[in-house]
Amino acid sequence: MEWHCKAFQDLSAAELYRILDARVQVFVVEQNCPYPEIDGKDPESVHLYATENGEVVAYARLLPAGLSYTEPSIGRVLVKEELRKTGLGKTLMNRSMASMQELWEVDVIKIQAQDYARPFYASFGFEPISDVYPEDGIPHVDMLWHRQ
């Protein structure tokens, strides 16, 4: 498995294609949720992903402060279905948070989590800051992490 952390302008067309394919497969096809996956935030984001045999198997979008929220945030967190429950998601989140520290020296990170994943994110220190609400027909909750 090979890890990559790249600004949008450093991605090749093939890398971007594989990233968008993985995101559409999980968030649109697998979750049966038609929504605008391409939202205009990718050019200002940093893209952290793992590849295996040329395929994106884990991905997170790291967004600087002011792009989605006042705080920096992590979004589009995914692990390919057959690799879930292997620890890859934990590695992805740890790498995401460490990369954000290196890039922006963050003290706080905000996420919009699917409610079922709340315990997963809580294991990294994220705490809910909103009630559960529907986003594209899926229950979500806003969560915040503060550096201790």
The chain-level structural class is alpha+beta
Low-confidence stretches are none
Strand/helix succession: EHEEEHEHEEE
State the helical fraction: 25-40%
Under CATH, the topology is which? Aminopeptidase
- In the sheet with the most strands, the strands line up as 1-2-3-4
What percentage of amino acids are in beta strands?
25-35%
Q: What is the fourth-level CATH superfamily? A: Gcn5-related N-acetyltransferase (GNAT)
Q: Outline the biggest β-sheet.
A: 4 strands, antiparallel
If classified by CATH, what would the architecture be? 3-Layer(aba) Sandwich
Distance between the termini: 31 Å
How would you describe this protein?
The structure is a single chain. The protein has 148 residues and is of the alpha+beta class. The protein has a single domain (2-146), classed as Aminopeptidase (3-Layer(aba) Sandwich), CATH 3.40.630.30. The protein contains three helices and eight strands, in the order E-H-E-E-E-H-E-H-E-E-E. This is GCN5-related N-acetyltransferase. One of its GO terms (molecular function) is glucosamine 6-phosphate N-acetyltransferase activity. Residues 6-148 form the N-acetyltransferase domain.
